[in-house]
Amino acid sequence: MDLTNEKKSNYAYALVIPFVASFVVSFYSYFIGAGIFNPYEAVASLLFWLPLLFALFIYPLRYIVSLFTRYIRTVWGTLIFAIYLTVHLLLYGLILEGILLYIYKVPPIINQAAFSFSAILAYPQSFVTTLEDFAFNPALNVAIPPGYALGLTLYSFVVAIIVAVLVVTNVMKVRELSKDCSFGQKSRVFVALPALGVVGGATCCLSVPFLLSLFAPVTAIVSGSLAAYYVAYLAFPAATVVALKYNLDSTMRIASKLSVRAAEV
Q1: Is the residue at 232 inside a domain?
Q2: Domain presence at residue 27
Q3: Which of 199, 213, 209, 212 has the alpha carbon at shortest distance from 245?
Q4: Residue 11 forms part of a structural domain
Q5: pLDDT single digits (tens) 66-77
Q6: 252: domain range?
Q7: Is the dihedral of CA 219, 100, 160, 131 positive or negative?
Q8: Within its chain, how far is the Cα of 262 from the centroid?
Q9: For residue 50, what are the contacts with CB-CB under 8 A and spacing of at least 6?
Q10: For the chain, what is the domain count?
């Protein structure tokens, strides 16, 4: 997925325009007024998150996407991706619902299964509340009797996709290296070390990282603390992306060294 400088510039212009437009549309949405679903805010969030997602995949995560397109064609790659995506959305859906229940003090009384869409503005209008609008809108709200509810936002979907791509590439690369290394137990130790450094993962049957990735969201849900909810929902996914990216970079460096050593044997 190599891009020339000219293509990079063209992509940059194409992505910056809708990204900037998202703030303009979000600002205009406040003139429409409050409501359960503000269509302009929903559009603004789309204009914000989709270009950001493509920008991450085209620039800093470009080589990772190339690896992912190869790994996702395997049974293990597809399984890891599907499992992590499902678990991530369920856990972070519970976290968002916890934030909303905490803020609005609404008791979780659910008599029947239902779903609805929402795009609710945060007040007073400011740059910070605009970012909050992007993080929480639009949302698909799912009610599950007797007392469960999920809030699935565009942000949670975008983050889930990014982390799932990184999880697949991390786990599959380590599996790939462990199979290819056959020249000594010491080499296997070098391969195993990066896997222990991943802060995020697939499932407990696949690796320790999965338990680490779920620790923060589960803690937030159990504690019921608004601060824990916000940290788990907003800060932890970003930290997970950085850690997974760093871990894969480290794994690739080790893979390069192992290739050199294998050639010398």
Answers
A1: yes
A2: no
A3: 199
A4: no
A5: 999 999 999 989
A6: 62-109+147-264
A7: negative
A8: 36
A9: 18, 158
A10: 1
For 73, counting Cβ atoms within 10 Å of its Cβ (0-12 exposed, 13-18 middle, 19+ buried), the class is: exposed
Question: For 114, how many CA atoms within 13 A lie in the half-sphere containing its CB?
Answer: 8
Q: State the Cα torsion 27-31-29-102 to the nearest 10°.
A: 100
In a domain, residue 183? The reply is yes
**Percentage above 70 pLDDT, the chain:** 64
Contacts of 126 (CB under 8 A, 6+ apart): none
Q: What is the pTM for the complete model shown?
A: 0.78
Q: How far is the CA of 178 from the CAs of 7, 76, 84, 189, 255, in angstroms?
A: 37, 15, 22, 9, 10
The answer on pLDDT for 30 being more than 60 is yes
pLDDT class of 36 with cuts at 50, 70, 90: confident
Q: Which amino acid is located at 107 in the chain?
A: P
Alpha-carbon span 200 to 243, nearest angstrom: 8
